[in-house]
Amino acid sequence: MKIKPKSNYSIDGYGKLNKNKTYKAVIATNQPDYQKEGKIFVEPNEDLQIELLLKRNEYEIVNY
Predict the structure, then answer these.
(1) Is residue 53 within 8 Å of residue 31, measured between CB atoms?
(2) Is this prediction's pTM over 0.90?
(3) Nearest-5° angle of CA 56, CA 58, CA 63?
(4) Which among 5, 23, 41, 46 is placed 20 to 30 Å from 56, CA to CA?
(5) Does the pLDDT at position 64 exceed 90?
């Protein structure tokens, strides 16, 4: 799926997510309450070197 973060996120030394860009993500099935809380992992990309866990209120789905 592709998502767009609702805010800018920055992780020192690893990069950032820009709220004006879209990113690939996967459902975080290995996390507790992933369905209830809408948890996803944003995949590593050109802006961010590591996966980032976001909850439903922190992103919007652009495309499945």
Answers:
(1) yes
(2) yes
(3) 70
(4) 46
(5) no
